[in-house]
Inverse folding.
């Protein structure tokens, strides 16, 4: 336990911004979990004596068109938004990563077909694919989670595949093969542990993306159905007025921005700590530009300065 | 080069076929009954069986699925995109009428992102860890985290407040009244362009720093080339390749993001048509528009790959 804390303290000293991001992220997660204790009012309770009130002493973030307390709704909104984002990333990035791990290790026809499928999935703009899927399976919490998760699969798949491709050539993996271990055993005990670090970076970065997609879906009216407070739904509610009250636009949006910022900073920090040499090439992979052609050049230019980055992206090209 | 081009084109056609298949599967098979998707569960329950059969036949939905899919592909090839279930206009008319506005927004966003992102990236890399670099990096982290549609809402709110802004109701094409047209598209283009520009600044900074550490840059400096010429003539062309790639990848953000940003600004572009169609469950419109967005994404990325081959002989001859 002591070493874990020491490790964390060292991380915080070296990456102040990332530590701040992590702290803010934790605070928002706490806010989501403890929403019933923190929220001053019931987020769903309309109060027709207090409609469209600007921020004042009674409700410091103001109230909406039917008199619901904005602060309470922002706090409860964290619940839905974070729950959707965490579930979607946990589902999508994990499925994608395991799939990518199998592709990278097994190679062959399975890998070829899988790569084509992931390429097709990646050909959709995220938000548009999520919209189409959530429309098809009916808007609701699970539909939104599933829709966002599907858009996360190819990213996990590509990054982890390239990691697995380079790991499979390592001597200790070959030793495993030589001693007759099954492919499943080698993947689970020898390749998987090496994929944990890139997976964490990926998952943290994609949490931010998932939050934005969820908010956009809510804003467009195809997300989690109202009256459930989510940050996106609140923004959608605000523009039903001819002149949207500024407090109804500002606070939910601010909540989204702060949360995304926190997760992005944390993700960047984890990446820099785990392997600073990886960062530029890794950024290219994480943002999804790990296409065959680009990685050849990326790998070639990175190879001389950074051997590790070179192998990773060159492996991605194979 | 010609062979590379041909291979890339065949590849893209394959990807697009996969894309169309996924759209078809998502919209026709997942919900079970497309009429439930169109009418909602209640509307569907109230319908008489005879009406049901007639409507299904009218829409061509009672044929076997492979036949429906085949007919859709043939229709696309012939330029027949079907018509909206709720409005009289055909999807082709919709695209021709609303498409230009969205295309303008996308192109203008691209121009803005390069005009802003590249100089900022160069400035950052020129003096790393200086004050301008710090400011540039902070701003880019911030603009990556801010959801575009929220920034759009804030801008609209500010314009409403101080300038009496009205959301554009009718479409003014650039060939009708360039000045009014610009007023419609500039806001969304700025919002999308700045977010992209932040990624481009970040990418060009890291690539440029990587290249500046290379031997040939040291050689150029050693033989007395002026610093400005070292950066612009020796380093920059090499750093541009990944920046071009990320621009292609970012198009996905722009295409998806524009849907929400158009909504925020109240611009009657293609994105809003898609949102309306999704909410109304107008599947013929949705399926064709989603295919259109994905096709643009795929085709632009083919162009990016080609420009890569054109700029980098290692790929052309490799």
């Amino acid at each position: 336990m002591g070493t874990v804390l020491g490790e964390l303290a060292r991380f915080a000293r070296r990456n102040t911004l990332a530590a701040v991001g992590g702290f803010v992220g934790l605070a928002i997660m706490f806010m989501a979990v403890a929403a019933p204790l923190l929220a001053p009012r019931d987020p769903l309770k309309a109060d027709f004596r207090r409609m469209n009130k600007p921020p004042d002493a009674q409700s410091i973030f103001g109230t909406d068109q039917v008199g619901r307390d904005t602060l309470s709704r922002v706090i409860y909104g964290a619940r839905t938004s974070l729950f959707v984002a965490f579930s979607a990333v946990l589902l999508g990035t994990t499925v994608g990563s395991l799939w990518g791990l199998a592709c990278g290790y097994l190679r062959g026809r399975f890998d070829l077909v899988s790569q084509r499928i992931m390429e097709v999935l990646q050909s959709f703009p995220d938000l548009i694919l999520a919209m189409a899927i959530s429309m098809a399976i009916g808007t609701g919490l699970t539909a939104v989670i599933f829709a966002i998760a599907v858009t996360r699969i190819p990213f996990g798949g590509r990054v982890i595949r390239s990691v697995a491709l380079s790991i499979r050539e390592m001597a200790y993996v070959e030793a495993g093969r030589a001693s007759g271990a099954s492919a499943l055993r080698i993947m689970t005990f020898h390749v998987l542990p090496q994929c944990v670090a890139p997976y964490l970076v990926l998952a943290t970065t994609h949490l931010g993306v998932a939050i934005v997609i969820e908010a956009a879906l809510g804003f467009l009216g195809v997300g989690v159905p109202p009256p459930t407070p989510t940050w996106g739904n609140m923004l959608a509610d605000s523009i039903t007025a001819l002149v949207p009250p500024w407090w109804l636009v500002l606070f939910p949006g601010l909540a989204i921005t702060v949360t995304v910022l926190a997760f992005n900073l944390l993700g960047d920090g984890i990446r820099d700590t785990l392997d600073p040499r990886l960062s530029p090439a890794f950024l290219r992979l994480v943002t999804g530009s790990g296409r065959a052609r680009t990685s050849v050049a990326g790998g070639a230019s990175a190879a001389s300065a950074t051997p590790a980055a070179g192998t990773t992206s060159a492996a991605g090209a194979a | 080069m010609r062979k590379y081009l041909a291979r890339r084109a065949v590849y893209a056609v394959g990807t697009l076929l996969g894309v169309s298949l996924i759209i078809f599967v998502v919209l026709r098979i997942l919900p079970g009954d497309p009429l439930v998707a169109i009418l909602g569960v209640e509307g569907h329950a109230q319908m008489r069986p005879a009406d049901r059969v007639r409507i299904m036949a009218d829409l061509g939905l009672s044929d076997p699925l492979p036949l429906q899919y085949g007919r859709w592909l043939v229709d696309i090839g012939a330029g027949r995109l079907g018509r909206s279930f709720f409005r009289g206009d055909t999807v082709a008319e919709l695209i021709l009428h609303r498409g230009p506005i969205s295309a303008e927004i996308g192109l203008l966003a691209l121009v803005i992102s390069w005009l802003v992102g590249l100089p900022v990236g160069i400035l950052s890399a020129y003096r790393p860890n200086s004050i301008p670099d710090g400011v540039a990096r902070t701003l880019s982290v911030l603009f990556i985290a801010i959801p575009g549609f929220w920034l759009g809402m804030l801008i609209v709110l500010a314009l409403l407040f101080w300038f009496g802004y009205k959301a554009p109701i009718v479409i003014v094409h650039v060939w009708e009244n360039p000045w009014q047209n610009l007023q419609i598209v500039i806001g969304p283009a700025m919002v999308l362009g700045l977010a992209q520009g932040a990624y481009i600044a970040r990418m060009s900074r890291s690539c440029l720093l990587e290249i500046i550490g290379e031997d040939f840059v040291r050689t150029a400096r050693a033989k007395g080339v002026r610093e400005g010429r070292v950066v612009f003539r020796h380093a920059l062309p090499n750093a541009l390749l990944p920046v071009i790639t990320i621009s292609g990848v970012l198009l996905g953000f722009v295409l998806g993001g524009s849907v929400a940003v158009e909504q925020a600004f109240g611009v009657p572009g293609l994105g809003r048509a898609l949102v309306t169609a999704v909410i109304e469950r107008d599947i013929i419109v949705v399926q064709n528009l989603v295919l259109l967005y994905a096709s643009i994404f795929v085709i632009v990325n083919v162009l990016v790959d080609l420009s890569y081959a054109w700029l980098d002989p290692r790929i052309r001859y490799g």
Residues 276-318 of chain A have pLDDT under 50 and may be disordered.
